[in-house]
Design goal:
This protein is 35% helix and 13% strand. It contains 6 helices and 5 strands. Strands 2-1-5-3-4 form a 5-stranded mixed beta sheet, with helices on both faces. The longest helix is centred in the last third of the chain and has 17 residues. With 161 residues, it is of the alpha+beta class. α3 packs across α6 and α4 runs parallel beside α6. β3 and β4 form a beta hairpin.
């Protein structure tokens, strides 16, 4: 990120309009973290392998380290910070704690963003939460607690309807 030789890029992050004055090719992850100070989006590998930088782009989970800032213009970007403001998201937070879906916490924001997308559209990834997590690497939990947490929230939603 060299400070802005390209045209300003208008972005909507967590329902807030902002302008990025850096390079059009700067990663969305860098814009989110360094440009906006939203450090919940983690930088792990910078190759799209770990999923720590997952955000929602028009409701779809994407690894933001591979998305050029310019390509996100005109799309709705949601980070873990934005999702955490939603009261319904707190049920996922609690379920992750209750089911041991959180250990070191580095992968947790990306995992939870992915789970949220899957919960909003359970047909996503063929309805399989394990398949939804295919782009999220967690070295601590073994995934069982994460999967149980998501399934518990979805089951509770179904029971409440």
């Amino acid at each position: 990120m060299n400070g802005g030789t390209d045209s300003p890029i208008k972005l909507t992050i967590n329902e807030q309009d902002t302008v990025w004055h850096g390079e059009a090719t700067d990663s969305l992850a860098d814009v989110i973290r360094e440009g906006q100070g939203l450090t919940g989006t983690k930088i792990g590998c910078r190759t799209g392998e770990c999923g720590a930088c997952t955000v929602l782009l028009d409701g779809q989970p994407v690894v933001s380290c591979l998305i050029p800032a310019a390509s996100a213009q005109g799309q709705k970007i949601e980070t873990i910070e934005g999702l955490s403001l939603k009261s319904e998201f707190q049920s996922l937070v609690q379920s992750m704690q209750d089911n041991g879906g959180v250990q070191c916490g580095f992968c947790t924001p990306g995992v939870m963003v992915t789970l949220w997308a899957w919960m909003q559209n359970p047909g996503l990834f063929g309805g399989d939460v394990g398949a939804a997590l295919k782009n999220n690497l967690c070295r601590c939990t073994g995934y069982l607690g994460i999967i149980n947490a998501a399934e518990q929230v979805v089951a509770a939603r179904g029971a409440a309807r």
